[in-house]
Amino acid sequence: MRKPPQSFLDSADRMGIAFDDGDLDRLGHWLELLMAGNERMNLTRILHPEDAWHRHVLDSLSLLPMVMSAGAESLIDIGSGGGAPGTPLAIVCPDLRVGLVETTGKKARFLEETSRTLGLGNLEVFNDRAERLGAVGSPLRESWDLVTARAVGRLPVLLELTVPFAKVGGHVLAIKGDQAAEEIGESRSALHRLHVNVVETVRTTTGTVVVIEKPRATPKGYPRGVGEPNRNPLR
Q: What are phi and psi of 144, to 5 degrees?
């Protein structure tokens, strides 16, 4: 697991990703920690080493061009689970401030332990609900250049949980699958109410990234209370 397969290296090379000394070793170490943690809790269903390098690491690093083009200094990942994409990005971008939001206590502790083990001084874990952390008065609200999320829910739900964290002028990068276009269609009301726009969709090796621009402040009524975005999505 510690050594990347040649297929991963070839794919990364085609994507123009260059690694500094020690990056690949730490990425492999993270995968080892992820697999060990998965024996105690449900972190991932992707267990084959080669698949893990592609679906966890390469999928995360597919956001690098967007991080670089945005000139981002900070990124927060909502619903981090096992740590992708935030942890791989923190490894290869040591100057990027990375936050991981995880509701489940034991998963948040795993993320904290992993960060300490890997020596990631640029990574911080927030163990709470996104509805509370993104609420008016929270220091995390509207304070991040980029907000990421994958496997958190369909786009009308995900938008309400992510947009409040982004700075005015910042972006949300929603990692979606084959139904990205359909979910964008479902999100017209949410986009309007939250004052954001889909500016592009980017195909990656494993999915589609929906890029959402935030030109105005999020209305004070969003996010709604804990659980409400899931119970009553903005449709």
A: -125, 140
Nearest-10 crossing angle of helices 23-38, 105-118: 150
β pairing state of 166-176 and 97-101 = unpaired
> Are 155 and 123 a contacting pair, CB within 8 Å?
no
Q: Looking at residue 55, what DSSP letter applies? A: I
Look up tokens 């995900």; give the residue: 158
Q: What is the CA radius of gyration of the chain?
A: 17
Q: What does the pLDDT look like over 51-79, one tens digit per residue? A: 999 999 999 999 999 999 999 999 999 99
For the chain, give the number of residues. Answer: 235
Domains and CATH numbers, the chain: 63-226 (3.40.50.150)
Q: Model confidence over 181-228: pLDDT tens digits?
A: 999 999 999 999 999 999 999 998 778 999 999 999 999 999 999 999
Mean pLDDT of 125-154: 96
pLDDT, tens digit, 9 for 90 and up, residues 39-57: 999 999 898 989 999 999 9
The residue with tokens 């698949």 is: 51
Rounded distance, CA 148 to CA 224, Å?
Answer: 19
Q: Which pLDDT score is estimated for 151? A: 76
**Pairing of the two strands 144-150 and 166-176:** parallel
For the chain, the helix, strand and coil percentages under 3-state DSSP, each to the nearest 5: 40, 20, 40
